[in-house]
Specification:
Blueprint: H1 25-54, H2 60-71, E1 75-77, E2 81-85, E3 90-100, E4 109-120, E5 131-138, E6 141-145, E7 170-177, E8 180-185, E9 190-196, E10 199-200, E11 210-218, E12 221-229, H3 232-236, E13 241-249, E14 252-260, E15 271-277, H4 280-285, E16 297-306, E17 309-319, E18 322-332, E19 336-348, H5 349-352, H6 360-366, H7 368-374, H8 390-393, E20 396-408, E21 414-424, E22 427-437, E23 440-449, E24 456-467, H9 468-471, E25 485-495, H10 499-504, E26 507-514, E27 517-519, H11 531-538, E28 547-559, E29 562-572, E30 575-584, E31 590-598, E32 602-603, E33 610-614, E34 619-623, H12 626-629, E35 652-653, H13 662-666
Parallel strand pairs: 5-7, 6-8, 19-20
Antiparallel strand pairs: 1-3, 2-3, 3-4, 4-5, 4-6, 7-10, 8-9, 9-11, 11-12, 12-13, 13-14, 14-15, 15-16, 16-17, 17-18, 18-19, 20-21, 21-22, 22-23, 23-24, 24-25, 25-26, 26-28, 27-28, 28-29, 29-30, 30-31, 31-33, 32-35, 33-34
Helix pairs in contact: 6-7
Length: 705
């Protein structure tokens, strides 16, 4: 019996139903991301809710631990603590909070405050500059300090070497009361304790100014400081920050003004600096730099600090009656170093007096003798006895180039002064020192080596041919009619820590050569020792015409501080001028006898020998007897071994003077090389031989001893 297939049976030709479409990979990834995002938002919302409800107080200990690990410091909160979002800004509140200093610091805490209440932009903690929408700080104490090596500071939170500049956050509104800042830099030997005026701002407005005041010590000098931020509303917004500051130290007033890109950024910012005071030396002494004393000064400059360099440019001002301009760079490295280029249009002679140790105020009021006495020199002495600042000179180095257009002096015209100074670990070199004097040129070198004890000092001064009329115009010599010139050299070496001591022990030679020319005096009383009077007494005529000079040499040999004539020999048309004796750098006594022997017979010539006596400070002229002439210099301890000069008659001149052979004279040769016009050795001049007596003879000579 046949069966029938069910109706729903699948025939071989039947098509299966279509499968559901597969889910795309993108959609699957989106679903996963959406789920994660929803979960993250939910988690953040949950965290936010938990923090908002609990105010985050439970994070106090974790905060101390995490902050301590990140800063490598001990962080503590002694009172209430809150850390949460309110609603989108982070609220941070802490009482009796403190952050420790590293172990090498001299104070235990970098920061401490009774209370901090702040609203912080969250993303600013991760990117860019930290941004505080609001900051309430009560009784904060901040301690900022560098280590001795200057490679670490307390505000750089790193165990590696290297101190970063202080970077303050941007603050929109603030209430700051009772806050103090301490700053210490051992390399600069700077310590400052500052107090901030109370700051209260609302609506992003602080007011007209914020003040900072305090005191401190720079090296060994105490100072006070007062500063004001004139545009604090712009400052908190990191705009233009107009800062003015005044500091007082050691009788000096320093004003600083400038525009800062941020409150804590000084480096690379041009600042206008002005300083005034009674003595510029006291200002530089603050940083351990020694310069000669000055009178009242006023200076202005632009200051830019870059790393260890402090560059003062566009410097201009005055000291005493002199002007000063140029630049100065102070490098505060391993050794303090000064590099400067200065210009002066006119330097007053009184302001130049400190360069050899005189106090310019005393020179101006009482004269050079009183100024020398103030340095410790014996009464009536002229050479200063001020000691070189040995210890200070060995602590810093310096390079100086200084041009002075004119030196204002009553008697000797000096101009075009160029000075090059180099100080290296206590060795001071002035080389070259050049200037124009009465249309002549002077070049000098001086070395003060304080590394040796006592200091080794060398002087080398060279005078190029110089017109005598212009050089001696202030001393009674007429420019008109004087055609003679003079050239010379002073070369001395001594030991001592004062100018007086270095010369009192000096040895060397002093020589001035007079080539052919004419000398005419006006006999005008213009100095203590008037050259016009001197020449008037030396020659028989009344100087109605100039004295004609063939050649001349005024020279001294210096041994152990005593200078003996070697020789004094001037050959004129009518006379031969001879001299013997000397002077002492030790006692500053002068004892020189000079005579003019006529070349022709002259009855009643009136040519008595002339003596120069007294001291450097008070020289005087005396008419000598022939007997005293041969003993010139005895009181100075000079043993003159040359044959005594020919006997002289007080009123009758036999006219047998031997003319000089000018070759050795013009060559500045010593007495041993001098010859008469006939080539014979001269034995009528001092030969420079000296014997220093420990105790001078009691017998008075020329009224000096």
């Amino acid at each position: 019996m046949a069966t029938t297939a069910p109706v729903d049976a699948v025939t071989p030709d039947a098509t299966p139903p279509p499968a559901p479409p597969p889910v795309s990979r993108r959609r699957r990834a989106w679903r996963i991301a959406r789920a994660i995002l929803i979960g993250a938002v939910a988690l953040i919302a949950a965290i936010w809710l938990v923090l908002f409800i609990t105010k985050g107080r439970f994070l106090k200990r974790p905060f101390e631990s995490i902050a301590g690990r990140l800063t490598h410091r001990d962080v503590q909160v002694g009172g209430d603590f809150q850390l949460y979002f309110a609603p989108w800004r982070i609220k941070f509140y802490a009482e009796r909070v403190s952050v420790a200093n590293p172990g090498w610091a001299t104070r235990p805490r970098l920061f401490a405050a009774d209370r901090i209440d702040a609203r912080i932009a969250p993303l600013s903690l991760l990117f860019g500059t930290r941004h505080f929408h609001w900051l309430d700080l009560t009784n904060g104490a901040i301690d900022l300090e560098w280590n001795a090596a200057h490679d670490r500071n307390t505000w750089t939170f790193s165990e590696k070497k290297g101190g970063k500049p202080l970077d303050l956050p941007r603050i929109d509104r603030a209430s700051i009361t009772g806050t103090t800042v301490r700053y210490r830099d051992p390399r600069m030997r700077l310590l400052a304790d500052l107090s901030l005026d109370t700051i209260r701002s609302t609506g992003a407005r602080i007011g007209e100014a914020v003040g900072v005041s305090g005191n401190g010590q720079l090296r060994d000098t105490p100072f006070t400081v007062a500063a004001r931020l004139l545009s604090p509303d712009a400052t908190v917004a990191r705009g233009r920050n107009e800062l003015v500051m005044r500091a007082r130290a050691a009788g000096n007033v320093i004003d600083v003004a400038g525009t800062l890109p941020s409150l804590a950024q000084i480096e690379g910012v041009p600042l206008a600096v002005r300083a005034r005071g009674r003595n510029l030396a006291t200002l530089l002494e603050i940083i351990g730099v020694v310069i000669p004393t000055t009178r009242d000064y006023r200076l202005r400059a632009q200051l830019v600090q870059q790393g260890q360099e402090y560059r003062f440019t566009r410097m201009a001002g005055t000291f005493g009656d002199s002007d000063l301009a140029g630049r100065l760079t102070v490098t505060n490295g391993e050794r303090l170093h000064l590099d400067s280029t200065l210009q002066t249009k006119r330097l007053d002679i009184i302001d130049a007096a400190p360069f050899i140790g005189y106090n310019p105020d005393i020179v101006a009021e009482k004269g050079a003798v009183a100024a020398a006495a103030a340095t410790g020199a014996a009464p009536a002495r002229l050479l200063p006895d001020a000691a070189l600042p040995i210890a200070t000179m060995q602590r810093f180095d310096a390079d100086l180039t200084w041009h002075v257009a004119a030196l204002r002096s009553r008697r000797v015209p000096i101009s075009d002064v160029d000075l090059r100074l180099d100080l290296d670990r206590g060795r001071l070199v002035l080389s070259p020192l050049t200037f124009t004097m009465a249309r002549g040129h002077v070049a000098a070198d001086a070395i003060f080596d304080t590394r040796q004890r006592p200091s080794a000092i060398r002087y080398d001064i060279r005078l190029a041919p110089t017109p005598m009329g212009r050089l001696l115009a202030g001393y009674g010599v007429a420019e008109a009619g004087t055609t003679g010139t003079v050239r010379g050299r002073i070369e001395l070496v001594g030991r001592g820590d004062t100018i007086h001591d270095s010369l009192a022990t000096a040895s060397g030679r002093i020589a001035f050569v007079l080539p052919a020319g004419a000398l005419w005096t006006r006999n005008v009383e213009l100095s203590e020792l008037d050259i016009g009077t001197f020449v008037q007494k030396m020659f028989e005529d009344e100087l109605k015409e100039p004295v004609r000079i063939n050649c001349g040499l005024i020279a001294f040999t210096v041994r152990n501080g005593i200078a003996a004539t070697d020789p004094i020999l001037i050959d004129t048309q009518k006379n031969v001028v001879l001299g013997r004796g000397g002077f002492s750098f030790r006692s500053e006594a002068v004892d020189i006898a000079i005579r003019a022997d006529a070349k022709r017979f002259s009855l009643f010539s009136g040519q008595s020998p002339v003596g120069i006596a007294g001291t450097f400070a008070t020289p005087r002229l005396e008419v000598l007897s022939p007997q005293l002439l041969t003993r010139a210099g005895a009181g100075l301890g000079l043993a003159l071994v040359a044959t005594p000069v020919a006997a002289l008659l007080a009123f009758i001149d036999p006219g047998d003077a031997k003319a000089a052979q000018c070759g050795p004279v013009l060559g500045a040769k010593t007495a041993a090389a001098q010859r008469t016009g006939k080539g014979e050795p001269r034995k009528d001049v001092g030969d420079g031989t000296t014997t220093v007596q420990d105790k001078p003879k009691r017998k008075k000579f020329l009224g000096i001893f």
